[in-house]
Amino acid sequence: MAKKNGGKKTDTDTKKKKKPAKRDEAAPQAEQNGSLEEQLRAAVKAVDVAEILTDPLTRSIENLLRLAARSIGTDEASVLVRDGDEGGLKFMVALGSVADKLLHVKIPPGEGIAGFVFASGTPMIVEDVAQAEGFYDKVDALTNYSTQTILATPLRVNEETVGVLEFINRIGDPPYRPYTPEEMDQAAHFADAIATLVDAHETAGLIETLFEHSAGNGKGKGRVRQSELREWLKGVRSAPEHRDLLLLAVSLRDIASRGEAERELCREVLEALARFTEKQSSAGMSYLSF
Asked: Is the pTM value of this prediction over 0.70?
């Protein structure tokens, strides 16, 4: 007769009852989180934010520039915009035989006819650049082009100059007929429309850059802290008013993200500020009407 084991479990019983470990439980939690973070970052990166806002605005500016050039009587025209906040200029959109070369050219602060128009906010006609003081001939040297006559007018938004609209030479062969005061007035109408788009383009470009930076730029970096965003924005080469606007937005987001009480406080402050500015504007209009 076989002996009883007294109720003790044998090795065979233990092996039968042992359950296999689940694969998900065996994977470290940190590894799973890392995988999820990588997937989310890849999804964000798949949305190509670069130029998603600025590209349509650039095309609109180019279309307006073509219409303006045709109306003025030339096929050589350009839109120059601020290069940083020290008065330098760069070509944003250009038409004509050396358009591609112009997009790589920058004009130092205060240099050239465009620099004068930008700094002074005064439109200008140059009948013959050979006789004009202050003409910046390095642009012609870099592009292998011969500028002879110019019409330049400022791009202004809310009393602030954001760039310069420039027309060069005429259609046909030299000597070119100088531009007229009537054509300067006509150019000013196009400048008003283009200036609005240029201002929107600058803001959109900064928002795109801010998005890429805050998302870690797709290089494995974590979410950028608000303090880092503020420090980074202070060094961005852009118009001061656009930087200040986004700095305020970053600060507001930082406060509002801390809880419902903070969000309510932000709402109350903004509403009070809106009422104050509206009151000040109404008082100013009443004074002017008086």
From this structure: no
